[in-house]
Specification:
alpha+beta; Gyrase A, domain 2
Length: about 190
């Protein structure tokens, strides 16, 4: 007789397939969670490493900011000292400027020119006096322009002398003292 299987084989096959599916599904879920956990650990380690580097950079930037502030403070002190040094140099060079002016005026005055007054106001020097001739005054103006210390000579006026002393003419002249920088450059 033919062999007939009366067992519910289709149901058994279906249960086995369902069991295989659940097993595979659980394995896929476990592998997915494991890979996600491993990936999060790797990224977490990378983020922690970057945070450590960022913190190091922040600390180094703070150190450099302090150094920059110190350098700026030193630059301010340096500028202040340089200004003081320039002032001291100017005072040192101007210390005997009056003597140098008088010496230079004595050199530029030709014979035949006499001063009644010599007055200094700042850098301007005003002279009033008497001269034997206008040529002597023009010689004096040329010598002022050739001087290392004096400049911008201008004759304010010449008045012919009174009848008794016609030989002498009254004059007014003004010239300036060169600035400290110009004098220093010429002397060097």
């Amino acid at each position: 007789m033919p062999h007939i299987n009366l067992l519910p084989w289709r149901e058994a096959a279906r249960k086995e397939a369902q069991q295989n599916f659940v097993t595979i599904l659980v394995m896929v879920i476990v592998i997915a969670f494991a890979s996600m956990f491993a990936l999060s650990q790797v990224y977490g380690a990378m983020i922690d490493g970057q945070n450590v580097r960022n913190n190091f950079l922040v600390r180094e930037i703070q150190v450099l900011d302090k150094r920059i502030a110190e350098i700026r403070e030193l630059d301010k002190k340096k500028a202040s000292l340089q200004q003081r040094m320039r002032l001291i140099e100017e005072l040192q060079s101007n210390r005997n400027l009056g003597t140098r002016i008088m010496d230079e005026v004595a050199k530029i005055v030709p014979s035949g020119v006499y001063f009644k007054t010599l007055e200094r106001r700042g850098d301007a020097i005003q002279i009033s006096g008497k001269s034997e001739s206008n040529n002597r005054l023009s010689t004096m103006i040329r010598q002022v322009e050739g001087s290392y210390l004096l400049e911008r000579a201008s004759l304010r006026g010449i008045v012919a002398g009174e009848e008794e002393a016609r030989l002498l003419s009254d004059f007014n002249m003004q010239f300036s003292v060169k600035s400290f920088d110009e004098i220093g450059e010429v002397q060097q």
